[in-house]
Amino acid sequence: MLVLVCGGAGYIGSNMTAMLAAEGHKPIVFDNLSRGHRAAVGQAQFVEGDLGDFELLVETLKQKRIDAVMHFAAFIEVGESVQEPLKYYHNNVCNTQSLLSAMEAAGVEKFIFSSTAAVYGAPEKVPVTEYSPKKPVNPYGETKLAIEKMCRYQSEAGKLRYAALRYFNACGAGNGCRLGEDHRPESHLIPLTIKAAMGKCSDVKIYGTDYPTPDGTCIRDYIHIEDLCRAHLLALNKLQEATELIYNLGNGKGYSVREVIEAVGKVSGKNFKVTETERRPGDPPVLTSDATKAKKELGWETKFPELEEIISTAWQWHTRNPDGYSD
C-alpha cells in the first residue's frame, strides 16, 4: 500500500516508516520537522508540511494516490499539556480534524491513529482493558480521547475505517538499532537514565518514592518500538474487512522506576547519580495493559518482552549516537 506517515520524522513514525518499507509497502512521510528529525526519515519520500495546511494535505493524498494514513504527529508531553492546554488542543485535535477532512475530500478511508494509555487516566483496576473507564487526568489524554471520538463518529457516518491503538510506554531502538529516541527536550525515563549513564546529564530523577507499590515508585508497562510498529501492520491489514479497531498495545508486564534504573545500570555497566524528589501531579501509581484483545484478534505477539533486552537496543543506539540525530 501507499501509506502517508504523518509525523514520520519522529521516534515512532520513523520506525514505522522503516518497517513499512521493509514489508513491501511504500511509505511517504509528511512532517513539519517541529519535533522530528529529517535524518530519521532515511530514503523514504518526504513531504515537509503542517497538518493545518488542508490544501497541501489534499494535494498530497491525491497526487501520491495514498491508500492509508498513519497518524503519529502529536505533542505528547503531559506536563507541557497542563501548562499550555490550548497548544495541545490546537495541534492534536484541530490538526487531526484537518487531516480527517482532507482524507474525506481525497476519498481516503483507512486511518491508523496513535492513541495512548493516558485516555484511562488513573485507573482503579489494573491491568486496564479496552473497556476500562476512560477518565483522562490531563489535557494530553483528553486530546487523544477527543480524537478517538471524532474517528468513531466519522466511521459511523460511513466515511472512515480506523484503528485507534492505545500505546503504553514505547521504548527501545528499532530497524537494527538504527532508529532511536531523541526528543528535545527529553522526558522519557529510559533515555534519560541512559543519558545519566553516559555522563550526558548529572543525574536521573525519581519523582515520588511513596507510592503504594512494592518499592514505592511508579510502575509502568514498557513496549519495544518494533513490537508496537508490528501491531500497526497487522491493524492495517485488518482494516480491509473492519471499520473500527481499538487495541491496547503493551507488554502486559509492569516495571517500577527503580527497576528501570537498575536495568540501565546493568546493561550499561555504569554507575550514575539517582536523585529522589517530589511526586509529579497526575502520575498514577500503576499503569499496565491487558493486550489480550490485540493478541487474539490480530495474532500479535511481542518479540521483546524482557526489559533488559529492550534497554539494550536503546543503549546501542545512544552510544552510537551520543548527541542524537545530526539535524
Summarize the structure.
Helices cover 38% and strands 19% of the residues.
SSE blueprint and pairings:
Blueprint: E1 2-6, H1 11-22, E2 26-31, E3 45-48, H2 54-63, E4 68-71, H3 78-83, H4 85-106, E5 110-116, H5 139-156, E6 161-167, E7 169-171, H6 189-198, E8 204-207, E9 219-224, H7 225-238, E10 244-249, E11 254-256, H8 257-268, E12 274-277, E13 286-287, H9 292-298, H10 307-320
Parallel strand pairs: 1-2, 1-4, 2-3, 4-5, 5-6, 6-10, 7-9, 8-12, 9-13
Antiparallel strand pairs: 9-11
Explained architecture:
This protein is an alpha/beta fold and 327 residues long. The chain has two domains: 2-171 and 222-249, NAD(P)-binding Rossmann-like Domain (Rossmann fold, 3-Layer(aba) Sandwich), CATH 3.40.50.720; 189-221 and 253-320, UDP-galactose 4-epimerase, domain 1 (Alpha-Beta Complex). It is 38% helix and 19% strand. The chain has ten helices and 13 strands. The chain has a seven-stranded parallel sheet, with helices on both faces. Strands 7, 9, 11 and 13 form a four-stranded mixed sheet that branches. Helix 6 (189-198) packs across helix 10 and helix 8 (257-268) crosses helix 10. The longest helix has 22 residues, at 85-106.
Features:
327 residues, UDP-galactose 4-epimerase, domain 1, alpha/beta, 13 strands, globular, 7-stranded parallel sheet, 4-stranded mixed sheet, Rossmann fold, 10 helices, 2 domains
